[in-house]
Amino acid sequence: MPHSSTSNLVKILEEDFTGIVEEWLGTQVEEGVKRSDLFSDAESRAQNAELLKNFAAVIRGGMVDGDFNLDDAAWEDLRAVLADVTKERVSRGVTPTEMATFVLALKSPLFSRLQDKLADDPDALIEDVMLVTRLVDAFAIHTNEIFIEEREQIIERQREEMMELSTPVVELWDRVLTLPLIGTLDSARAQEVMENLLQTILERQAEVVILDITGVGTVDTQVAQHLLRAAAAVRLMGADCIISGISPMIAQTMVQLGIDVGTVKTRSSIRTALADALTAVGYRIETVKD
Amino acid sequence: MREMKSRRASALRMTRFATAVSEIARNAVVHGGGGEISVSITADEQYLVVRCQDHGPGIGNLEQAMQDGYTSRDGLGRGLGGAKRLSDTFDIRSAPGEGTVVTMSCRV
Predict the structure, then answer these.
(1) What topology does CATH give the domain A170-280?
(2) Does B75 touch chain A (CB under 8 A)?
(3) 8 Å CB contact between A215 and A183
(4) What is the DSSP string of A159-177?
(5) CA-to-CA distance for A233 and A227, rounded, in angstroms?
(6) CB-CB under 8 Å, B12 with A252
(7) Are A226 and A185 in contact (CB under 8 A)?
(8) Domain ranges in chain B?
(9) Range A30-56 average pLDDT
(10) ipTM surpasses 0.90
(11) CB contacts < 8 Å between A and B, how many?
(12) Contact B96, B58 (CB under 8 A)
């Protein structure tokens, strides 16, 4: 590939900076990705101008022999601005397609200006068009990566929140704790549940712990093993453990799997488990009115 | 599960088969280093078939592995035998170094 020069591109950007920004905005409107419902005209214009300014700056300084590498230090400012704009747009609900089209819309104003300027030199024109294409495509890919990164962070955060939400130890009465388990119980969660539970037993001086699995859909051998281990640990701490919420389906499945719960107390509902627990700590529930 | 529900399979049947699939899928992940699972329905729409394949070390002694109480790690040792009891048909093929394929089905 012949050595391509960026001078034409630099000149275009210097000569008609505002014109390009306006046309870029125009293309976005045409493509239907401007999202005036999410961004005011002034905001969009400021974002585009900021991006283009940084774009112009790196074209002046960040090209090595007419080639570029988006990971170079010289591109850091542009990458940061791209990241900011993308994050801003993600948080306002812009789709990945809209984001990519938004960036790619920059091509057309640059192409038309190059065409005007280099009408007599088709070779140079093609070279510059190719360069602009590569540059703008690289930006679009970069914004897409940021987009996915943002999403992944959100998913990870939600996963952590769910993890915390799903293991609340509740003090039902003096010295009676309950742990309502919901969803699936994998090894990581089982570990978290266990730590949380044992710590709370110590803090609250609990004597009875009810592990309620009403919200657990299936109990396979691993889930059963986690439950039995938790029960054993609770017992080692001197408290009684009752596993409640064993549905008829789960009971039959466990029998067929051949799971032996040993001496762990089990109850079909949390209601009977609670009655047992209160008796164990010396309380009784009485009707005061009939 | 959704497919079974739409075919009005009983809750017990669903729980049992889901547990069996869970056992086998976990084996494939823990021992086989992951693999593929496919779910299909037989042409006569009578059975839901789950096929789980891994490319792990395989099982040397199938007979022993199917026995209750046998475990290669610190599990309960009920997984394979239990999964067989929980499904309507159960077929396991494995050889050392060739991974394991389990095909099981449940009437819907």
Answers:
(1) Transcription Regulator spoIIAA (3.30.750)
(2) yes
(3) yes
(4) HHHHHHHT---EEEETTEE
(5) 10
(6) yes
(7) yes
(8) 2-107
(9) 78
(10) no
(11) 58
(12) yes
Out of B15, B18, B82, closest to residue A221 by CB: B82
Residue A241, beta-bridge partner list: A209
pLDDT tens, per residue, chain B with 108 residues:
566 556 666 778 888 888 899 889 888 888 888 888 888 888 888 888 999 998 888 887 777 787 777 776 666 667 788 888 888 999 988 888 888 899 999 887
pLDDT tens string A14-24: 888 888 888 88
Contacts of A248 in chain B (CB under 8 A): 12
Asked if A107 contacts A136 with a C-beta cutoff of 8 angstroms, the reply is yes
- Cα of A280 to nearest chain B Cα, Å: 31
Q: B12 and chain A: CB distance < 8 Å anywhere? A: yes
Do A47 and A28 form a contact (C-beta atoms < 8 A)?
A: no
Contact predicate B106/B13, CB 8 Å: yes
Query: CA–CA separation, A225 vs A253, rounded Å?
Result: 14
Eight-class DSSP state of A73: G
Q: Could you tell me how many residues make up chain A?
A: 290
Domains in chain A: boundaries:
7-163, 170-280
Cβ under 8 Å to B: A residues 3-62: none
Q: Across the interface, do B82 and A256 touch by the CB < 8 Å criterion?
A: yes
pLDDT of residue A3: 41
Gyration radius of chain A over CA positions = 32
Output the CATH code of domain B2-107. Answer: 3.30.565.10
**A170-280 and A7-163 share a CATH fold:** no
Regarding the domain delimited by A7-163, which CATH topology (the fold level of the hierarchy) does it fall under? Answer: Globin-like (1.10.490)
> What residue in B sits closest to A228 (Cα-Cα)?
B76
